[in-house]
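Subgroup meeting minutes
Present: P.N., E.W., G.H.
Scribe: E.W.

1. P.N. recapped why we're keeping a running log of single-chain structure predictions: easier to compare across weeks, and new members can see raw inputs and outputs side by side.
2. G.H. added today's entry (265 aa).
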Amino acid sequence: MAQSESRPRCGGRSDPIFVVGCPRSGTTLVRQMLDSHSRISCGPETQFLQDLARVEEEHWDRLHRFGISREEWRASVAGFFEQLHLRYAHDRGKVRWADKSPNYALIPDYVGSLFPTCQVIHVLRDGRDVVASYRSRWGTRAARRAPRAWRRHIETARRSELARSPERYLEVRYEQLVEDPRAVMAGVLTFLGEPWEDQVLDFMRSDRPGTGLDSPELRQRALAAGGASVVYRSSVGRGRDLRALELRLRLQLVAGGLMRELGYR
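Output recorded in log:
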């Protein structure tokens, strides 16, 4: 049954949620839908856990001189990070926090060590469409790097300890999400142990920060153009006719095996 009120529910799970995946794979769409739920706050990207993981890896000899153990260091990092999210969530009347930072797909075991009960949603998208989106957003030079980035994000996340736990790791296909958002999001919320709420499909009505619709005029324009739930199916398949032969060949050379393994033919 759909929620008729927007106030947060009490009870339920409180485990942190991470939304990860190669950039341009649809993680923002998942973030907006989750953030529309009355219990879940999925705020702006943090991105800096990757930097802190690098600090620990490259400078542990310096940190260790202060008499701190690695476990104590990570507990401090996790505590600060969680308080940042909880303050933002509670200020918005939410009780559970989520973080959408695509590049955390590259440090899944570090994230898991910080938050041993976290749940990870890994968004996958056809590599051809990711390359096309890189090119549209950042130009041809970035598109040339996209196949390697796509492969690295997916393989690293899938090799992690988290990926071996079905209670903590869920893969979502972008193509299925835009084709049937209700069914896919119902599965996501079941995985998270959260009740279904119709507003996850009405995310464009919200004035949440980070939607790109921070004024009533922009929201009204978007709603008039596409309705309450603006999910663009036209973005699926945009990379199958990549104009540059070089990009098609690069994708096949770097990630052709993974493309076939995932069923992207």
